[in-house]
Amino acid sequence: MRQTSDYGPVIEFRDVAYVLPNGQPLLAGLNLQVQRGETLILLGRSGSGKTTSLKLINRLLIPTSGEVRVNGAPNAEGDVIRLRRSIGYVIQDVGLFPHYTVERNIGLVPRIEGWTVERIQQRVEELLQMVGLEANLASRYPHQLSGGQRQRVGVARALAADPAILLMDEPFGALDALTRDQLQREFLSLQQRLGKTVVFVTHDLREALRLGSRIALLEAGRLVTVLSPEDFLRSKDPLAAAYLHAFRDGLDPAANRGAS
Predict the structure, then answer these.
(1) Domain end: 148, 163, 178, which one?
(2) Which of 20, 134, 136, 223 lies 20 to 30 A from 239 at CA?
């Protein structure tokens, strides 16, 4: 991959479309930029194109048309493995390897990158502390952890090789309310310290307003608007207003948690 530039967006969608083999469009005409160090929220209902957009960044999906650029270069160019190793990825069901200990899960990418055993062990200890886990959990397996602990390990694994970009797909969506609140607080604290460029998928407006630098609202595969949390609260856009109305009434306008 090209070296990161100090200028211009870190991630850019240029008129991107994605259509399934059966002809069903999941994304159309997406033009969007993600700036260095920001947390851009992709907000929308099931089927709005959130997860599709996220997977286009690290080439888990390839655009049907248009171009996705990472660090100023088309992400279709170069080694896809190198691209993915340079981007942290956190998903709702964590995706930890069940037969690996916490330490081996977190150290996976550094090990592939050829780090020494001592350096990996030091990094694992550092990350466990960073995400609020006790050092003695390093020898446990995923099934021996709570849901919140597994999600913390997932975040630690994504940060292991210190990627500049972090993709997060509803990482706290399956957790109980108290654990989710705690992890959101920890994410904000981490982001303030680390300054990663984050693209964060959620269907939850409360989470979007709390965590985002900007909110990109998607509907039926199209980008509706991109606003700061403050501007979102004042927006007259009909869809944004519908989200706010439901939010203020204690409802969830995107309660369907299916694939997006």
Answers:
(1) 163
(2) 20
